Every structure is written in C-alpha cells, then in structure tokens.
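Risk register update: the risk of archive-format incompatibility is retired. Evidence:
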Amino acid sequence: MSETNQIIIGICILVVVVMLTRKFHAWKIKRAYFSIVRDIKAKGAFDPKSAIDLPYARNPMFRVGLRDHRPIALEHLVQDNIVGVTEDGKYYLKDKSV
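Archived output:
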C-alpha cells in the first residue's frame, strides 16, 4: 500500500473517531438533561419559592474520575428557559411540560 493511501486511511479513521466522540458526549449530555429534570421534579421545585440547591451546578476545582456532564447540561437547560435560577443560585423547573 502506498504512503498516500495510508495517510488517507489514517485521516478517515481520525475523522470517524472524532465524530463518534462528539456523538458520545452529546448522548451523555442528553442523559444528564433527563437526570436534572427528574431531580428537580422529585424535590418539587416548580417555582422560585421552592427552588433547590443542586450540588452539581458548579464544576469542581479538582476533578477525579469520569467527566460529569451535568453542569454543562444545566447551563443549556437554563439558557433554553426550561430551568430557572434564583438570585441565590437555586434552581427550579420553569417548563412543567418537560
């Protein structure tokens, strides 16, 4: 096999790996969406008065172990107006249809 063919095959494999990695992280963030909404519903936080503090709302200074996708998912939920934030930094569910 020529060197050119090896380079082309290597680049194709690299592109596939990058695409699969992006799909995997998107899947993990989607699972985190459901986990966050389930936690908020279970604690009954449906308005600013009943808002709750979520322990995973902030990224920890030192990460040990696997990556936690919940802080990223929580940011997306707040941006999409599904989850609301109080001035105290507590969270509640704005969109009850979720």
